[in-house]
Design brief:
It is built from 16 helices and 23 strands. With 497 residues, the protein is an alpha+beta fold. The longest helix has 27 residues.
């Protein structure tokens, strides 16, 4: 009898495959980075074929290292970087060029044209989203408008659209040989094309944004059997699909209204469970579909998205060469007692929540001759915490719920200096779980529930365990002063482009 659940976590910088046992212990894993392609300032692309090949490689490596076979895996869940958009030919299986990554700003003009006729919030009531370069719909339109062969192939019914979940599931289930073309509600809600209330593609939105219906995947729940794997693993049920941030919420067992988590990855994403009714934000947040288990009512979230968090550390490493490895940033930041009054606002591709200003650009402010690399490193870490505070402020206003603690996950939570500063600046405890791979765990949970590997969400809540907790130590006056300076720095980034 199969004793394990597998999860593919297809992220912005890498793809990993993790196998969990019934007690949520990791029994096998492998990971591989893919290239970040920057054709011009503001443009970010991925090679979707490279990502698919990496997916096959990490599955193969993890299974080989652990001695597991396909028949040991009861089901497979997929979680993915959201909004990253690929169009491909369903007969050849080949993409029409690189995928456009969520951070990419090339659709700025399309979004501006759409917002000129009704404002940037014209679709918010229906979609929960503002008009922004972040989302998939305008990216699809850009790809169609800029590739004549796509336009021709659409007429012949040959073009398929997907975010990375759809691309991976289609390839896993056979690709050109009857691959299954689906996406779940959490991913569909990030396209600007789905009505949050009906959970279906909306004809008016498709017409306004310029996306043909026949290229879109079927919208399904986050936890059901979609099909069976033909590639990578043999005949394993593909039974879970969640966008990465919703998967992390699910993996953190935030099943009750008002529970929240923050994921510190390439970007930073704070999500709060708002229950079975969508709460439309008045404070610059996104309303998004959280998850749906089979035929149960969908659960909605408020979300604050920060574009640049861990990516700022990568920038210090790769562009400025301050450090050799990302984990070197903490020791470097600890060489100084504070930020030396330096603030970094990493608006590399504009500001996301709660501002939504695509014309903003990054800055480092407060520089004097006293400043060294340690201060810059510390300011980089603090930027992530300040951005989280801004999002949380907006979330509390929208929801009316005062957060009492914050569950955290993602690659940056090993950084104890950052976690302490986050607790200090939020003035609430910050809690790290025992299993920090909560994104993959959420996808595994969704798949496991679909095939009765786990009985219900109560069982999952019992398995959630705390690894470490940080409590606030900062004086109120110091917190207020730092936050005021941060706000001042942010205001200086506006309207640079």
């Amino acid at each position: 009898m199969p004793n394990f659940i597998g999860a593919i976590d297809q992220g912005t910088t890498s793809t990993r495959f993790i196998v969990f046992d019934q007690d949520t212990n990791i029994v096998a894993s492998d990971q591989k980075e893919h290239r970040q392609i920057y054709p011009a300032p503001g443009l970010v692309e991925h090679d979707a074929l490279e990502i698919w090949n990496n997916t096959l490689e990490v599955i193969s490596n993890a299974m080989r290292k652990s001695g597991l076979r396909s028949e040991d895996i009861k089901a497979l869940g997929i979680t993915n970087q959201r909004e990253t958009t690929v169009l491909w030919n369903k007969e050849t299986g080949l993409p029409y060029g690189n995928a456009i990554v969520w951070q990419d700003t090339r659709t700025n003009l399309i979004c501006k044209q759409l917002s000129d006729n009704g404002g940037s919030d014209r679709f918010r009531e229906k979609t929960g989203l503002p008009l922004a370069t972040y989302f998939s719909g305008p990216k699809i339109r850009w790809l169609i408008e800029n590739n004549p062969s796509i336009q021709e192939d659409i007429k012949n019914g040959l073009v398929l659209f997907g975010n990375m979940d759809t691309w991976i599931i289609w390839n896993l289930t056979g690709g050109p040989r009857n691959g299954i073309h689906v996406t779940d509600i959490s991913n569909a809600s990030r396209t600007l094309l789905m009505d949050l209330h009906t959970l279906s593609w909306d004809e008016e939105l498709l017409q306004e944004i310029g996306v043909p219906h026949n290229i879109l995947p079927r919208i399904v729940s986050s936890s059901e059997v979609y099909g069976f794997s033909q590639n990578g693993l043999q005949n394993v049920a593909i039974a879970g699909d969640l966008g990465d941030q919703q998967a992390a919420l699910f993996g953190q067992c935030c099943f009750q209204q008002g529970e929240a988590k923050n994921t510190y990855g390439t970007g930073c994403f704070l999500l709060m469970n708002t229950g079975t009714e969508p709460v439309i934000s008045k404070n610059g947040l996104l309303t998004t579909a959280g998850y749906q288990l089979g035929n149960a009512d969908p659960v909605y979230c408020l979300e604050g998205s920060v574009a640049i968090a861990g990516a700022l550390v990568q920038w210090l490493r790769d562009n400025l060469q301050f450090i050799d490895h990302s984990f070197d940033v903490e020791p470097l930041a600890r060489t100084v007692p504070d930020n030396g009054d330096v603030y970094i606002v990493p608006a590399f591709s504009g500001l996301y929540a709660p501002y939504w200003k695509s014309e903003a650009r990054g800055l480092i402010i407060g520089l004097t001759r006293y400043i060294n690399k340690g201060h810059i490193a510390r300011a980089a870490l603090e930027a992530t915490a300040f951005q989280t505070l801004e999002v949380l402020d907006a979330m509390e206003k929208d929801s009316g719920v005062k957060l009492t603690s914050l569950k955290v996950d993602g690659g940056m939570v090993v950084n104890e200096l950052l976690m302490q500063f986050q607790s200090d600046i939020l003035n609430v405890p910050v809690v790290r779980p025992k299993v920090t791979e909560t994104t993959a765990l959420g996808a595994a949970y969704a798949a496991g529930l679909a095939v009765s590997f786990w009985k219900n969400t109560s069982v999952l809540t019992e398995k959630w365990g705390k690894d470490k907790e940080w409590s606030p130590k900062m004086e109120d006056s110091a917190r207020a002063e730092k936050y005021a300076k941060w706000k001042k720095a942010v205001s200086r980034t506006f309207d640079w482009v």
